[in-house]
Write a structure and sequence with these properties.
The chain is built from 13 helices and seven strands. The chain is of the alpha/beta class. The protein has a single domain, classed as D-Maltodextrin-Binding Protein, domain 2 (3-Layer(aba) Sandwich). Helix 6 links the parallel strand 3 (135-138) and strand 4 (154-157). The longest helix is centred in the last third of the chain and has 35 residues, at 218-252. The radius of gyration is 19 Å and the shape is globular.
Length: 299
């Protein structure tokens, strides 16, 4: 994540506390701003043990562990209440964590990266038709790629660190992301319209390389785990505050903001077969665990 993102700032605080409390015996170095490569590259590095921990989006982790993407099903969660209920405890969270273990990954609590909106340089997105033909930057996420294809857009995968330049040079017409991420990446400098589509939620899994983690003493695991959990709690609060004030700040920076009716977008996805496709891919048991918190999807 960028240095200004609350995931980065809260982890910096956690690593400082771990270093201090362990008298320097545990020293974890943080590399923000994609310094160690793309998300997919860092996931590969984590699996090999080249890095000990990573923070990676659920949407991109889906390319490795399909079930990891299920919280990002379009228009699934009505708000943070059912979302945190699904991901902090219960059968859906357990299924996702269990699916990570065969890949040698140990998951901590998930970091908030927000409900996602569309920002473009071409036109505001008021209706489904407004998305048709737009080249929208997405992370390497099968769910988000499928979503925008179903709505008639042309999704294109671009590394986050390269997105600003891609939007500036019109390689892409826009991107989709949360308000704090739009602020942190400063893409508002090269875009004009912010449409509060709220089409999907994405989080950031804080992951450890399993064998590295298992080799630590119980005391070291407890110390790291406690500070990581505290960091996630602080991050969620900081993210919520940034998100609440984000629209006003982005308006002040010159963005034209609109909030479309979301019901037609969800109806268009249902009609396209999007929900039926992903129910089949995730499987009926995982889909049922999701719908315990969301209610019926695709009806």
């Amino acid at each position: 994540m960028p240095q200004a993102h609350p995931a980065t700032t809260c982890l910096v605080e956690a690593l400082d506390a771990i270093r201090t409390e362990s008298d320097g015996r545990i020293d974890i170095t943080l590399y923000p701003d994609s310094q160690l490569g793309s998300e997919l590259s860092m996931q590969s590095q984590l699996r090999s043990g080249a890095i000990a921990f990573t923070l990676t989006s659920a949407s991109s982790l889906q390319t490795l562990v399909p079930l990891a993407g299920i919280p990002g099903v379009a228009y699934a969660f009505s708000g943070y209440g059912p979302l945190w209920s699904a991901l902090d405890d219960g059968p859906l969270s357990a299924r996702i964590r269990d699916s990570l273990r065969p890949f040698g990954l140990r998951a901590f609590r998930i970091v908030d990266n927000g409900f996602r909106d569309v920002i473009t340089s071409v036109r505001p997105v008021e209706t489904v038709a407004d998305l048709r033909g737009l080249k929208i930057r997405v992370p390497p996420s099968p769910l988000l790629t499928s979503l925008f294809k179903a709505l008639g857009a042309s999704p294109t995968t671009i590394n986050l660190a390269e997105t600003y330049a891609a939007l500036q040079t019109r390689v892409a017409d826009g991107m989709e992301n949360s308000l704090p991420q739009i602020e942190a990446t400063r893409v508002y400098e090269v875009q004009k319209y912010l449409s509060r589509t709220g089409h999907s939620w994405d989080g950031l899994w804080l992951l450890a390389h399993g064998r590295t983690w298992d080799a630590l003493s119980g005391d070291a695991q407890a110390l790291i785990g406690r500070h990581f959990d505290d960091a996630v709690a602080r991050q969620r609060q900081a993210f919520a505050e940034m998100n609440a004030q984000g629209e006003a700040r982005l308006r002040a920076k010159g963005l034209v903001v609109n909030t479309p009716d979301r019901a037609p977008f969800r109806a268009a996805l249902a009609a396209s077969g999007y929900y039926a496709e992903w129910k089949a891919k995730f499987g009926p048991e995982a889909w049922s665990a999701l719908e315990r918190h969301t209610g019926p999807l695709g009806a």
